[in-house]
Amino acid sequence: MVLFLKDLNYMYLTENINLKVSDILSNGVWSYNNELHQIFHNFKMPEVLGGEDILLWTRNLIGEFSTSEAVNKLRNREQSVNWSKYLWTHFLHHFVARNVWKLIQGIYTDDKSMVKNRYEIVSRCRICETEQDSMNHLLWECNFSIDIWRWICFIFQFKLPKSFEDIWKCASNCSPLVKQVWITTVCIILKELWFQKNKIFFEDIKPNMQGFKCRIMKFVNEGGLRITGTKWNQNYDHEMIEKFQLGFRHSGFRYIKKYHWLLPEQDIVMFCCDVSSFGNTGSQDVVLLSLVRDSACQVLGTLSGSIGVASNYLAESYGIMCALELEIQWSMHKIIIMSDSKYVLAEFSQERVPWFLKGRWHMATRKLNQIEYQRCYREVNFPADCMAKKGALLAAGERKIHIGRPQCLPRVEMENVEYFRFG
Ligand SMILES: [Zn+2]
């Protein structure tokens, strides 16, 4: 109860801070006075199942305590940064990533920081010998580094970068392969520009443009072993592969697989569940749908509903839950639940449902003789997918049941028809 009411400031609750669930539950029925009635009339109270009390860890959807989640709750979270997804990747060698991370975080010493720390030095860039030495100058403004950026941008046909922000954005419209090659290349360049300064300082090795370029090409070619992104079948991608000698690369689709839709057996009803989300941020409006099919291939009805902002896992769980409740309403006893979410199906088949749905789930499954959970790919569940997308017009909390096949559903899956999946 605390979960639902913690954000609401009700005078009665603050005055009765020790109120317990057992005070408003008598003989398995919710019973409360007028004050509480005013608070609860907007809430759908959970089903009372009876039995022993159970202890729930509410941070976990299943209700089970885990040390990792407890640590996660306690730990201090820093602000998220946009460069981490480019840097901490499988295709970039950790040695390169680590050094670029130091550059981004400012973990280095240059003359500018020495002067700031009151060292009396005469500062001069050891490469171009014209400007004051600083990391910003070395990476983006020094004649040598500008020539290197010009050279690499000519190869990739990108605009000259002037900051870290620029280099992350450059390849945003390219294939996964080119994106990975670009990030690998620029990170190697950044690391080499920094290391070159040390070579001049400690080993007295003069900067050499040709040698530098050869080193970059060699390192990118070696880094190609880690690059797994797929290419697009266009000349630009082929030119990049050739330039860095990356060898054979796969294009977008690696395989095409055949699938069939299987008709449910006699007396068994199939619920094809799917969810669709709308919005392009982390929190999305989710619409769920169940399409009901019988053994004669007929569409018995559809159920669509919107649950507002929710995660995909929750939406899939609610979708299955609504299908189970519809089965009680329609007095069905043998059912198959089909969904493309392997994880949610596995959890439901092991009775590991979200803790706040447990009551509803027990009530729904109590009357069933047979329940089977089947995973299917979206390619053989396309009517549910299509209907879920149309459900975008529903308001949060709204539910619609349609008896029979809706007019807006032009095609449904048929037995003995081949469906293809591109992977
Ligand atoms: Zn310089």
Q: What do these coordinates show?
A:
- The protein is of the alpha+beta class and 423 residues long.
- It is 40% helix and 15% strand.
- The chain has 17 helices and ten strands.
- The strands form three sheets. It has a six-stranded mixed sheet, with helices on both faces. Strands 1-2 form a two-stranded antiparallel sheet. A two-stranded antiparallel ribbon has the order 3-10.
- The radius of gyration is 30 Å and the shape is flat.
- It starts with a helix and ends with a strand.
- 25% of the residues are buried.
In this entry the ligands are:
zinc ion
**Which outline best applies?**
flat
In order across it, which strands form the biggest sheet?
8-7-4-5-6-9
Q: Number of helix segments?
A: 17
Number of strands: 10
Strand content: 5-15%
Q: Report the average pLDDT across residues.
A: 83
Regions with little confidence, pLDDT below 50 for 5+ residues: none
Structural class: alpha+beta
Distance between the termini: 45 Å
What's the order of the H and E elements? HHEEHHHHHHHHHHHEEEEHEHHEHEE
Fraction of residues in helices? 25-40%
User: What is the CA-based Rg, rounded?
Assistant: 30 Å
Major sheet summary line: 6 strands, mixed
